[in-house]
Amino acid sequence: MRNRDVLYVPISKCDMVNQITHPSVYFQSAGRHNTSETLQLALHYAQQLKIRHIVVASTTGSSALKFCRLAKNAFKIICVTHQSGFAQPGKSELPVAVEKKLISRGVSVLRTTHLFGGVDRAIRHQFGGLGPPEIVANTYRTLGEGTKVAVEIAVMALDAGLVPYGKDIISIAGSSRGADTALVIRPAHSHRFFATRIRQIICKPWSF
Q: How confident is the model at residue 54, as a pLDDT?
């Protein structure tokens, strides 16, 4: 089934007291075929809500570059890629040429240990079982892989000092490759993780 066209609905106050309408978009299925719509929706909400910082999960840099072209230097963009060694020991999945291109366009590139991985993942690989971080990760996956990643990279970017504390940002992620999820989120530092607040689901897959 084809995804419908992007529908831009103005963010507006309802007639009821203390309510604001923030429409969400749900894609028929998860995957990279939703990338263009996801990026356009994220840009639209950033403009409407006057959010300046956008965090993009981008293993190869492709989604981050696409958002750069849409944004036209109007936002502070942070590309969060896989940590070195994620796929192969000692190797980065973000090509050097692409990283240089991102940096030349003012994009910050974050390559660091994943919030929900790290030593806990090593324990699972060697001894089995799940530690608390991976239990949290799998709980977020009940809303889709993109939701889990979007929350994770927002906190990672805050811990790295690349987004401001106490401010709403937009976090974009996907299911394996590309983008299919975007959130308005106010991240907390990892040692205060449960103070993180998801303000709005801009878009996500319906089926995943």
A: 98
